[in-house]
Amino acid sequence: MSTNTIPQYCRHVAVDAADSPLHIATGAVPTPHADEILIQVAAAGINRADLLQRAGLYPPPEDASPVLGLEVAGTVVATGDSVEDWHAGDAVCALTHGGGYAEYAVAPVGQCLPVPTGFSMTEAAALPEALLTIWHNLYQRARLLPGERVLIHGGASGMGTMGVMMASALGAVVYTTAGSDEKCRALEARGATRAINYKTEDFEQVLSDLGLRNGVNVTLDMVGGDYIQKNLNLAAPEGRIVNIAYMRGFKTEVNFAPLLIKRLVMTGSTLRAQTFEQKAIMKNEIMTTVFPHLENGDIRPVIDSTYPLAEVEQAHARMKEGTHMGKIILLMEQAS
């Protein structure tokens, strides 16, 4: 599509106040800055961060779009003056600076990836947030190495499924937790050595029985609460524990003796607060190290469900209930 056929206005999802109903509104199509591309969006990924932003608990940066949505897939329709490697008509998936729940969205060029060969737009929209979050936390922060043992909590989430597949493809021995036997078996089929049903099993006891007390090199935790102590107990000497969320709470009583005795590192991060430059480094490393595994089919995102833009409330309800496995995707028109 040439720039002279881009409409002036497009539909997007709007929210008038914290926790108020979502609705479809019309606004101006954004204009890309010099280092941005304009994307006609086919599909947009839904993330728990969107629900937190909607509730007023995760305010966007001052320079970000107030429209929800952190990742999209679609077609490039215009580029900023300094963009050289992207052209109108290219298929792209991107981490946005907000604004993804819309028919048109802009994205910094350093956060844009090609759609892997054979991927639908629905699958491509499931990639950016999970790829960058998992890469940054498991590989840049925790320095996960081939052959090491990694424990990934929330394995059935969009983030968790990507973590299981990426860590397995890059040579780690993966253990994970999920909320049903069916999800556990599905995660084992995607590379986990053992998936533990946290509703019927105590993951600390299961892994201890497997000889992994003091044997987990890296833990990726989005649960927090009482998991914090269990993670410390299971960690190997020189182990690394990374938190990306605290769904069971930020506060708990913890015995930190294992931190000292085993010389552990505890860290955490959010993706959105990091600079465009930091995210561009993540993207470039992913293109070198992870993208070949997307191209050859070793890593393929798990899609839980799709919803048309007008059913965004139902999509958020699906995310909130927490029974999904993989990514929940909004479709703008007839994306596949």
- From the N-terminal CA to the C-terminal CA, the straight-line distance is 20 Å
**How many DSSP H or I helices?**
11
> What Rg do the Cα atoms give?
20 Å
> What's the total number of strands?
15
CATH 2nd-level architecture of the largest domain: Alpha-Beta Complex
Shape: globular
Compute the number of structural domains.
2
**What percent of the residues sit in helical stretches (DSSP H or I)?**
25-40%
- Mean pLDDT figure: 96
So, the CATH homologous superfamily of the largest domain?
Answer: Medium-chain alcohol dehydrogenases, catalytic domain
User: Could you give the order of the helices and strands?
Assistant: EEEHEEEEHHEHEHEHEHEHEHHEHE
Q: Identify low-pLDDT runs.
A: none
The CATH topology name of the largest domain reads Quinone Oxidoreductase, Chain A, domain 1
Structural class: alpha/beta
Instruction: Name the CATH class of the largest domain.
Output: Alpha Beta
Percentage of residues in DSSP E strands:
25-35%
Give the biggest beta sheet.
7 strands, mixed
Keywords: NADP, Oxidoreductase
Organism: Candidatus Marimicrobium litorale
Domain Enoyl reductase (ER): 17-330
Pfam families: ADH_N (PF08240), ADH_zinc_N_2 (PF13602)
